[in-house]
Design a protein that fits this description.
Blueprint lengths: L3 E5 L2 E6 L6 E6 L9 H4 L11 E7 H16 L8 H17 L7 H7 L3 H15 L4 E7 L1 H7 L7 E7 L25 E6 L9 H4 L6 E6 L10 H16 L1
Parallel strand pairs: 3-4, 3-5, 5-6, 6-7, 7-8
Antiparallel strand pairs: 1-2, 2-4
Helix pairs in contact: 2-3
Length: 248
């Protein structure tokens, strides 16, 4: 699979296929760079046969986080430290020094200290959609916080359908936040949400607990927010559902 990269203001896109293709499958992963969406990204590859150009969206901050993790993991090993909290603190300090050697990524300090507001991620997604233009058919596949970002851009003209794994209806350690779900009432595009039965961000209760647009379909899976423990057959069934949804 040949992966190409193209810069976008505030981030970059990585893609497989031609940017001239009319059908674009856009993947938006989790906001935390240390919690990847690898099992779900693996589902994207079979869709090449359907004629999609597959595109991954990544902010500057997320790309920097991955760069720091990569450099750290290649050169540093603190596994000998018996105290996890001490090891975690030292890891952060070491990453600061690594970052100092990469000035163009210093903006990452703001991201780590303040956290990145979702509006910034949505703005990046809007810029990506504008980059492709209104003549494209854009299908968005997302995971967790990526689903929130996608929902806020769902009614863009070129966005045709959306899929999300583990929509974060409610943070498990916080009170209900209406901003996480109010936009789901106004969705006017077909939106398929795969939700784990015991997902800590919302399980089987979400079907009746929240007011959802009639354009939203829920498919419950016997798993959690990390999509752990699913068999090859179960992943195959999920892949079949995605293909059928995209072909409708």
């Amino acid at each position: 699979m040949q992966l190409s990269v193209h810069p976008i203001n505030g981030g970059q896109i990585s893609y497989v296929g031609s940017l001239d293709n009319k059908n674009i499958l856009l993947f938006i992963g989790r906001s935390n760079a240390q919690k990847n969406s690898a099992p779900i990204q693996a589902l994207i590859e079979p869709l090449l046969a359907l004629g999609f150009t597959q595109v991954w969206v990544e902010s500057i901050e997320s790309a920097t986080g991955k760069l720091l993790d990569q450099i750290y993991n290649q050169h540093i090993d603190l596994s000998f430290i018996p105290l996890p909290k001490v090891e975690k603190l030292l890891r952060k300090i070491i990453k600061v020094f690594i970052l100092l050697a990469h000035p163009k990524h210093w903006r990452y300090f703001i991201y780590t200290l303040k956290g990145k507001p979702i509006n910034s991620e949505v703005s990046l997604l809007h810029r990506v959609i504008q980059f492709f233009g209104s003549v494209k058919n854009i299908y968005i596949l997302s995971h967790s916080a990526g689903g929130r970002v996608a929902s806020l851009a769902a009614n863009e003209l070129s966005v045709k359908k959306l899929i999300c794994f583990g929509y974060p209806f409610k943070h498990p350690d916080e009170q209900e936040d209406p901003t996480r779900t109010i936009d789901l009432e106004a969705i006017r595009k077909p939106f398929l949400i795969f939700q784990g039965l015991w997902d800590e961000y919302g399980g089987k209760e979400v079907a009746t607990k929240y007011k959802l647009s009639p354009f939203i379909s829920l498919s419950f899976i016997n798993t959690n927010h990390e999509y752990e423990g699913l068999s090859e057959n179960e992943w195959g069934g999920i892949s079949d559902q995605i293909i059928a949804f995209l072909k409708k």
